[in-house]
Amino acid sequence: MKRPWTEEEIKKLIQDYRAGKKVEEIANELGRSWDSVWGKIKVYNSEQKAKEKEKEAGVIRADILEDEQKLAAILSAKGYVVEKMTDDKMDRRFIITAKIEREIKIGVVSDTHLGSKYQQLTWLWEFYQICSKSGVHHILHSGDMIDGIDVYPGQEYEIFQHGLDAQVSYAVDNYPKVEGIKTYVIAGNHDYSFMKKAGADPLDIIAKQREDIVYVGAYGAYPEIAGLKIYLAHGRSGLGGIGPYARSYKLQKMVEGFTPEAKPDFLFLGHYHTNCILPHYRNVFAIQMPCFQSQTPFERRSNLFPEIGGYILTLGLNDEGRKNNLALVEYEYIPFYKMKERDY
Protein backbone atom coordinates (compact mmCIF):
# COMPACT_ATOMS: atom_id res chain seq x y z
CA MET A 1 0.00 0.00 0.00
CA LYS A 2 1.37 3.41 -0.98
CA ARG A 3 2.26 5.75 1.86
CA PRO A 4 0.05 8.88 1.66
CA TRP A 5 1.66 12.27 1.32
CA THR A 6 1.48 14.60 4.32
CA GLU A 7 1.00 18.37 4.09
CA GLU A 8 4.49 18.88 5.55
CA GLU A 9 6.06 16.68 2.86
CA ILE A 10 4.25 18.49 0.03
CA LYS A 11 5.21 21.88 1.50
CA LYS A 12 8.90 20.83 1.70
CA LEU A 13 8.76 19.40 -1.81
CA ILE A 14 7.46 22.68 -3.23
CA GLN A 15 10.00 24.74 -1.28
CA ASP A 16 12.90 22.58 -2.46
CA TYR A 17 11.63 22.53 -6.05
CA ARG A 18 11.26 26.32 -6.11
CA ALA A 19 14.75 26.61 -4.60
CA GLY A 20 16.13 24.75 -7.63
CA LYS A 21 16.81 21.34 -6.17
CA LYS A 22 16.82 18.37 -8.55
CA VAL A 23 14.07 15.76 -8.44
CA GLU A 24 16.55 13.06 -7.34
CA GLU A 25 17.68 15.16 -4.36
CA ILE A 26 14.13 15.86 -3.24
CA ALA A 27 13.19 12.18 -3.61
CA ASN A 28 16.19 11.04 -1.51
CA GLU A 29 15.52 13.59 1.25
CA LEU A 30 11.84 12.64 1.47
CA GLY A 31 12.42 8.92 1.05
CA ARG A 32 10.13 8.87 -1.97
CA SER A 33 10.46 7.42 -5.45
CA TRP A 34 11.46 9.62 -8.37
CA ASP A 35 8.14 8.97 -10.12
CA SER A 36 6.12 9.90 -7.03
CA VAL A 37 7.97 13.21 -6.54
CA TRP A 38 7.81 14.09 -10.22
CA GLY A 39 4.04 13.42 -10.20
CA LYS A 40 3.53 15.94 -7.39
CA ILE A 41 5.71 18.49 -9.19
CA LYS A 42 3.63 18.14 -12.36
CA VAL A 43 0.44 18.77 -10.34
CA TYR A 44 2.05 21.85 -8.78
CA ASN A 45 3.14 23.21 -12.18
CA SER A 46 -0.34 22.63 -13.60
CA GLU A 47 -1.93 24.53 -10.71
CA GLN A 48 0.49 27.44 -11.17
CA LYS A 49 -0.34 27.69 -14.89
CA ALA A 50 -4.07 27.69 -14.07
CA LYS A 51 -3.56 30.52 -11.59
CA GLU A 52 -1.69 32.54 -14.20
CA LYS A 53 -4.49 32.06 -16.72
CA GLU A 54 -7.06 33.15 -14.14
CA LYS A 55 -4.97 36.21 -13.35
CA GLU A 56 -4.72 37.13 -17.02
CA ALA A 57 -8.49 36.73 -17.40
CA GLY A 58 -9.16 39.04 -14.47
CA VAL A 59 -10.51 36.28 -12.20
CA ILE A 60 -10.11 36.84 -8.45
CA ARG A 61 -9.52 33.52 -6.72
CA ALA A 62 -11.45 32.96 -3.50
CA ASP A 63 -8.30 32.28 -1.45
CA ILE A 64 -6.66 35.51 -2.66
CA LEU A 65 -9.82 37.47 -1.90
CA GLU A 66 -9.94 35.95 1.59
CA ASP A 67 -6.31 36.98 2.23
CA GLU A 68 -7.08 40.54 1.11
CA GLN A 69 -10.07 40.69 3.44
CA LYS A 70 -8.00 39.45 6.37
CA LEU A 71 -5.29 42.03 5.66
CA ALA A 72 -7.87 44.81 5.41
CA ALA A 73 -9.38 43.72 8.74
CA ILE A 74 -5.96 43.73 10.46
CA LEU A 75 -5.12 47.22 9.16
CA SER A 76 -8.57 48.55 10.06
CA ALA A 77 -8.16 47.22 13.61
CA LYS A 78 -4.90 49.18 13.87
CA GLY A 79 -6.70 52.40 12.99
CA TYR A 80 -5.93 52.64 9.29
CA VAL A 81 -8.57 53.60 6.72
CA VAL A 82 -8.50 50.86 4.08
CA GLU A 83 -9.99 51.60 0.68
CA LYS A 84 -9.80 49.16 -2.23
CA MET A 85 -9.24 50.99 -5.49
CA THR A 86 -11.38 50.00 -8.45
CA ASP A 87 -11.16 50.11 -12.22
CA ASP A 88 -14.94 50.56 -12.48
CA LYS A 89 -15.77 52.19 -15.80
CA MET A 90 -19.29 53.34 -14.94
CA ASP A 91 -20.41 56.97 -14.62
CA ARG A 92 -17.21 58.52 -15.91
CA ARG A 93 -17.43 62.18 -16.91
CA PHE A 94 -16.22 63.28 -20.31
CA ILE A 95 -16.21 66.73 -21.91
CA ILE A 96 -16.86 66.79 -25.65
CA THR A 97 -14.93 69.65 -27.18
CA ALA A 98 -17.19 71.51 -29.58
CA LYS A 99 -17.33 74.91 -31.21
CA ILE A 100 -19.88 76.89 -29.19
CA GLU A 101 -22.50 78.42 -31.45
CA ARG A 102 -26.14 79.41 -31.08
CA GLU A 103 -27.11 75.87 -32.00
CA ILE A 104 -25.45 72.50 -31.57
CA LYS A 105 -26.58 69.33 -33.32
CA ILE A 106 -25.93 65.85 -31.98
CA GLY A 107 -26.90 62.40 -33.23
CA VAL A 108 -27.89 59.52 -30.96
CA VAL A 109 -27.91 55.78 -31.74
CA SER A 110 -27.97 52.58 -29.73
CA ASP A 111 -27.81 48.79 -29.93
CA THR A 112 -26.10 48.33 -33.28
CA HIS A 113 -25.15 44.70 -32.43
CA LEU A 114 -22.46 44.26 -35.07
CA GLY A 115 -21.70 40.59 -35.60
CA SER A 116 -25.36 39.62 -35.34
CA LYS A 117 -27.05 38.02 -38.33
CA TYR A 118 -29.81 40.56 -37.73
CA GLN A 119 -27.68 43.73 -37.73
CA GLN A 120 -28.96 46.59 -39.88
CA LEU A 121 -25.63 47.95 -41.05
CA THR A 122 -26.99 49.53 -44.25
CA TRP A 123 -29.45 51.67 -42.29
CA LEU A 124 -26.78 52.56 -39.74
CA TRP A 125 -24.56 53.88 -42.54
CA GLU A 126 -27.57 55.73 -43.98
CA PHE A 127 -28.22 57.37 -40.62
CA TYR A 128 -24.61 58.53 -40.39
CA GLN A 129 -24.86 60.03 -43.88
CA ILE A 130 -28.04 61.89 -42.87
CA CYS A 131 -26.27 63.19 -39.77
CA SER A 132 -23.33 64.37 -41.88
CA LYS A 133 -25.62 66.27 -44.28
CA SER A 134 -27.44 67.80 -41.29
CA GLY A 135 -24.24 69.24 -39.81
CA VAL A 136 -23.83 66.71 -36.98
CA HIS A 137 -20.27 66.24 -35.75
CA HIS A 138 -20.91 64.24 -32.58
CA ILE A 139 -22.91 61.00 -32.32
CA LEU A 140 -23.64 59.37 -28.96
CA HIS A 141 -24.05 55.59 -28.73
CA SER A 142 -25.97 54.08 -25.78
CA GLY A 143 -24.28 50.68 -25.82
CA ASP A 144 -24.21 47.23 -27.44
CA MET A 145 -22.03 48.22 -30.37
CA ILE A 146 -21.27 44.52 -30.94
CA ASP A 147 -23.34 41.42 -30.24
CA GLY A 148 -21.08 39.70 -27.70
CA ILE A 149 -21.08 36.10 -26.58
CA ASP A 150 -23.34 33.82 -24.49
CA VAL A 151 -25.63 36.65 -23.45
CA TYR A 152 -28.64 34.30 -23.57
CA PRO A 153 -29.20 30.65 -24.53
CA GLY A 154 -29.09 30.13 -28.28
CA GLN A 155 -27.30 33.38 -29.11
CA GLU A 156 -24.52 31.42 -30.80
CA TYR A 157 -26.97 30.64 -33.62
CA GLU A 158 -27.79 34.32 -34.12
CA ILE A 159 -24.29 35.63 -34.86
CA PHE A 160 -21.98 35.32 -37.84
CA GLN A 161 -18.83 36.67 -36.15
CA HIS A 162 -17.73 34.32 -33.37
CA GLY A 163 -15.34 35.33 -30.62
CA LEU A 164 -13.70 38.51 -29.37
CA ASP A 165 -11.15 38.94 -32.16
CA ALA A 166 -13.70 38.40 -34.92
CA GLN A 167 -16.25 40.87 -33.56
CA VAL A 168 -13.65 43.52 -32.72
CA SER A 169 -12.06 43.28 -36.18
CA TYR A 170 -15.46 43.41 -37.87
CA ALA A 171 -16.46 46.53 -35.90
CA VAL A 172 -13.15 48.25 -36.63
CA ASP A 173 -13.56 47.57 -40.35
CA ASN A 174 -17.30 48.10 -40.75
CA TYR A 175 -18.70 50.51 -38.16
CA PRO A 176 -19.60 53.73 -40.04
CA LYS A 177 -16.68 56.07 -40.54
CA VAL A 178 -17.75 59.45 -41.89
CA GLU A 179 -15.41 62.41 -42.17
CA GLY A 180 -16.09 65.07 -39.55
CA ILE A 181 -18.08 62.79 -37.21
CA LYS A 182 -16.92 61.28 -33.92
CA THR A 183 -18.83 58.58 -32.06
CA TYR A 184 -18.88 58.49 -28.25
CA VAL A 185 -19.93 55.05 -27.00
CA ILE A 186 -20.61 53.25 -23.73
CA ALA A 187 -20.48 49.48 -23.29
CA GLY A 188 -23.74 47.60 -22.96
CA ASN A 189 -24.37 44.10 -21.61
CA HIS A 190 -23.57 42.50 -25.00
CA ASP A 191 -20.26 44.38 -25.27
CA TYR A 192 -19.36 43.60 -21.67
CA SER A 193 -20.10 39.88 -22.07
CA PHE A 194 -16.47 39.52 -23.19
CA MET A 195 -15.31 41.11 -19.93
CA LYS A 196 -17.24 38.48 -17.99
CA LYS A 197 -15.95 35.62 -20.12
CA ALA A 198 -12.37 36.65 -20.81
CA GLY A 199 -11.58 39.87 -18.94
CA ALA A 200 -11.21 41.78 -22.22
CA ASP A 201 -13.03 45.02 -23.01
CA PRO A 202 -13.82 45.01 -26.75
CA LEU A 203 -14.79 48.69 -26.95
CA ASP A 204 -11.47 49.71 -25.44
CA ILE A 205 -9.72 47.71 -28.18
CA ILE A 206 -11.96 49.14 -30.93
CA ALA A 207 -11.47 52.73 -29.79
CA LYS A 208 -7.69 52.33 -29.84
CA GLN A 209 -7.88 51.32 -33.51
CA ARG A 210 -10.41 53.94 -34.61
CA GLU A 211 -9.63 57.61 -33.98
CA ASP A 212 -13.25 58.55 -34.68
CA ILE A 213 -14.60 56.30 -31.87
CA VAL A 214 -14.26 57.40 -28.25
CA TYR A 215 -15.02 54.92 -25.47
CA VAL A 216 -16.48 56.80 -22.49
CA GLY A 217 -17.35 53.98 -20.08
CA ALA A 218 -19.51 50.96 -19.27
CA TYR A 219 -23.28 50.92 -18.76
CA GLY A 220 -23.44 54.65 -17.97
CA ALA A 221 -21.41 57.82 -18.60
CA TYR A 222 -21.72 61.59 -18.41
CA PRO A 223 -20.55 63.19 -21.65
CA GLU A 224 -20.88 66.98 -21.48
CA ILE A 225 -21.19 69.33 -24.43
CA ALA A 226 -21.51 73.13 -24.35
CA GLY A 227 -22.14 72.98 -20.59
CA LEU A 228 -25.04 70.56 -21.03
CA LYS A 229 -24.89 67.40 -18.92
CA ILE A 230 -25.89 64.22 -20.75
CA TYR A 231 -26.30 60.76 -19.29
CA LEU A 232 -25.78 57.84 -21.67
CA ALA A 233 -27.24 54.70 -20.13
CA HIS A 234 -27.70 51.06 -20.99
CA GLY A 235 -30.52 49.29 -19.15
CA ARG A 236 -30.80 45.78 -17.83
CA SER A 237 -33.26 42.92 -18.47
CA GLY A 238 -36.86 43.76 -19.18
CA LEU A 239 -36.94 42.86 -22.88
CA GLY A 240 -40.30 42.13 -24.47
CA GLY A 241 -42.69 39.97 -22.48
CA ILE A 242 -40.66 40.29 -19.29
CA GLY A 243 -40.51 44.08 -19.45
CA PRO A 244 -42.98 46.67 -18.16
CA TYR A 245 -46.24 47.17 -20.03
CA ALA A 246 -45.77 50.94 -20.11
CA ARG A 247 -42.78 52.00 -22.23
CA SER A 248 -42.20 55.09 -20.14
CA TYR A 249 -41.74 53.13 -16.91
CA LYS A 250 -37.98 52.51 -17.22
CA LEU A 251 -37.31 56.13 -18.17
CA GLN A 252 -39.43 57.44 -15.32
CA LYS A 253 -37.76 55.23 -12.72
CA MET A 254 -34.28 56.12 -13.96
CA VAL A 255 -34.98 59.86 -13.84
CA GLU A 256 -36.50 59.51 -10.38
CA GLY A 257 -33.43 57.56 -9.24
CA PHE A 258 -30.91 60.34 -9.93
CA THR A 259 -29.64 62.22 -6.89
CA PRO A 260 -30.00 66.00 -7.33
CA GLU A 261 -26.31 66.54 -8.09
CA ALA A 262 -26.25 63.66 -10.61
CA LYS A 263 -29.39 64.60 -12.53
CA PRO A 264 -28.58 65.33 -16.21
CA ASP A 265 -30.17 67.66 -18.73
CA PHE A 266 -30.56 64.76 -21.18
CA LEU A 267 -30.92 61.03 -20.71
CA PHE A 268 -30.49 58.56 -23.58
CA LEU A 269 -31.36 55.00 -22.54
CA GLY A 270 -30.36 51.99 -24.63
CA HIS A 271 -31.05 48.24 -24.38
CA TYR A 272 -34.81 48.06 -24.91
CA HIS A 273 -34.85 48.53 -28.73
CA THR A 274 -38.05 50.61 -28.60
CA ASN A 275 -38.88 54.32 -28.70
CA CYS A 276 -40.18 56.45 -25.89
CA ILE A 277 -39.79 60.18 -25.33
CA LEU A 278 -40.35 62.11 -22.10
CA PRO A 279 -39.62 65.66 -23.25
CA HIS A 280 -39.48 67.35 -19.83
CA TYR A 281 -39.86 64.87 -17.00
CA ARG A 282 -38.58 66.37 -13.75
CA ASN A 283 -36.41 68.75 -15.77
CA VAL A 284 -34.79 65.89 -17.75
CA PHE A 285 -35.28 65.43 -21.50
CA ALA A 286 -35.32 61.63 -21.74
CA ILE A 287 -35.36 59.30 -24.74
CA GLN A 288 -35.51 55.52 -24.71
CA MET A 289 -33.59 54.57 -27.81
CA PRO A 290 -34.53 52.41 -30.81
CA CYS A 291 -31.86 50.14 -32.30
CA PHE A 292 -30.19 48.94 -35.49
CA GLN A 293 -30.99 45.24 -35.23
CA SER A 294 -34.00 43.49 -36.75
CA GLN A 295 -36.06 41.03 -34.77
CA THR A 296 -34.00 38.09 -33.53
CA PRO A 297 -35.46 34.71 -32.55
CA PHE A 298 -34.82 35.65 -28.92
CA GLU A 299 -36.79 38.87 -29.32
CA ARG A 300 -39.61 37.02 -31.04
CA ARG A 301 -39.82 34.62 -28.09
CA SER A 302 -39.81 37.65 -25.79
CA ASN A 303 -42.68 39.35 -27.65
CA LEU A 304 -40.51 42.27 -28.66
CA PHE A 305 -40.74 44.02 -32.01
CA PRO A 306 -37.67 46.29 -32.34
CA GLU A 307 -37.79 49.73 -33.90
CA ILE A 308 -34.95 50.75 -36.21
CA GLY A 309 -33.61 54.28 -36.27
CA GLY A 310 -31.77 57.10 -34.54
CA TYR A 311 -32.27 60.68 -33.38
CA ILE A 312 -30.88 64.06 -34.35
CA LEU A 313 -31.25 66.75 -31.70
CA THR A 314 -30.82 70.47 -32.25
CA LEU A 315 -29.97 72.30 -29.03
CA GLY A 316 -30.45 76.07 -28.98
CA LEU A 317 -28.33 78.05 -26.54
CA ASN A 318 -28.69 81.53 -25.08
CA ASP A 319 -27.87 83.62 -22.02
CA GLU A 320 -31.39 84.33 -20.84
CA GLY A 321 -31.10 82.52 -17.52
CA ARG A 322 -32.65 79.27 -18.62
CA LYS A 323 -31.24 75.98 -17.43
CA ASN A 324 -27.58 75.69 -18.48
CA ASN A 325 -28.26 78.20 -21.28
CA LEU A 326 -30.60 75.69 -22.93
CA ALA A 327 -33.35 77.60 -24.73
CA LEU A 328 -34.54 75.17 -27.38
CA VAL A 329 -34.70 71.42 -27.99
CA GLU A 330 -35.75 70.12 -31.37
CA TYR A 331 -35.64 66.41 -32.05
CA GLU A 332 -35.94 64.50 -35.30
CA TYR A 333 -36.52 60.78 -35.35
CA ILE A 334 -35.02 59.05 -38.40
CA PRO A 335 -36.88 55.71 -38.79
CA PHE A 336 -36.18 52.78 -41.09
CA TYR A 337 -39.14 50.50 -41.62
CA LYS A 338 -38.02 47.79 -44.02
CA MET A 339 -35.72 45.29 -42.34
CA LYS A 340 -32.83 43.95 -44.42
CA GLU A 341 -32.01 40.26 -44.37
CA ARG A 342 -28.38 39.12 -44.09
CA ASP A 343 -27.18 42.71 -44.03
CA TYR A 344 -23.52 41.77 -43.78
The topology string of helices and strands comes to HHHHEEHEHEHHEEEHEEEHEE
- Rounded radius of gyration (Å): 26 Å
CATH class of the largest domain: Alpha Beta
Mean pLDDT: 86
Number of strands: 12
Percent helix, as a range, is 25-40%
Total helices: the number is: 10
Shape: elongated
Alpha-beta content class: alpha/beta
- Poorly predicted runs of 5 or more residues: 56-65
Number of domains: 2
The major pleated sheet works out as:
6 strands, mixed
From the coordinates shown, what is the CATH architecture of the largest domain? 4-Layer Sandwich
Binned strand content: 15-25%
Strand order of the largest sheet: 1-6-7-8-10-9
**Separation of termini?**
65 Å
CATH-defined superfamily of the largest domain = Metallo-dependent phosphatases
CATH topology of the largest domain: Purple Acid Phosphatase, chain A, domain 2
Description:
By secondary structure, this protein is an alpha/beta fold. The chain has helices at residues 7-18, 23-30, 34-56, 62-77, 121-133, 164-174, 193-198, 202-209, 248-257, 297-301; strands spanning 92-96, 103-109, 138-141, 182-187, 213-218, 220-225, 228-234, 266-270, 276-281, 284-288, 308-317, 326-336. Helices cover 33% and strands 23% of the residues. The strands form two sheets. It has a six-stranded mixed beta sheet with strand order 1-6-7-8-10-9, covered by helices on one side. α1 (7-18) crosses α3 (34-56) and α2 (23-30) crosses α3. The protein is elongated. The chain starts with 6 loop residues before the first helix and ends in an 8-residue tail after the last strand.
